[in-house]
Structure prediction request, 293 residues.
Amino acid sequence: MEDKKEYLVKTLSRTKRKDYENYVINRLYNRLNDLDIKPMTQKYVKRNLNGKNGYCLIDLYFPQFNIGIECDEPHHISRQENDLLRTEDIIEELGNYNEQRITVYDKSIIDINNAIDKIVENIKISKEEQIKNGIFKKWEILSPQEYFADKDKITIWDDIEFSTINEASNLIFGTDYKGQQQAWFQIKTITDKQIMAWFPQLAIEKDNTMVASSNGWNNTINDNKDTIFEYNEFMQNTSNDFDKRERVTFMKMKDKITNKASYKFLGVFLPISKTNGKVAYKRIDTEFQIIKN
Prediction:
């Protein structure tokens, strides 16, 4: 139950800079009042945008029922056509997706609350129907071992984190480490080519500047989380040479709410350039096949 507390504090705080959205999401989940139902805010969904890889974020998503909640603030007035295309893309990606929208920009607080209550009732009905049909799965927070027990790959959309390098390596790469602390090493269970495991630590913000959090290694990532930039603050290296091996990457990040540091799979990255000692890595794959013992 404590794990759920930390998760809920984390996920229900992700919209704090969007006042209306924050109100809708928090009131809705509190009215639902059911710890067997998992909420996800800012649910990442990949999209194809004019032939290029893209993504969108669902304001509030309930994975057990494939229900998404969108809060329509004033800026949605001028982008209704784009919203329709976005919804079509989400349906294509998630299948039988049920989107429910709450308009807030021209509604009274009573209207907004009534709309929230209707959605809460629909979610409760969805749960009752699943229970009746024997398919309801109670929300449980699983360990990585439990989560990947019946999976054959890890993807960037898996909502799971690892406490240590040992845990991630042994479970995903099929190794048997007991004290692995290196953040960069060859995956010894892959024998047909040389692929590296990489566990960089995300830089921290200090006085509006990103500074190294470990041994001078300054690792930053773009908003899409598909490009990583790395350099060492203690080294003056202007050579343009860089290692060109693939890296299965788990970024160590500290949660701003819980202050807990853990490793999150970001995909397979390849170094593409080096300028004044700073290397740029581009994601080339969003998933990795788990190596079984």
Remarks:
- The first helix runs from residue 2 to 11.
- The chain has a mean pLDDT of 86.
- The two ends are 32 Å apart (CA to CA).
- The helical segments are 2-11, 19-32, 80-94, 109-132, 144-147, 165-172.
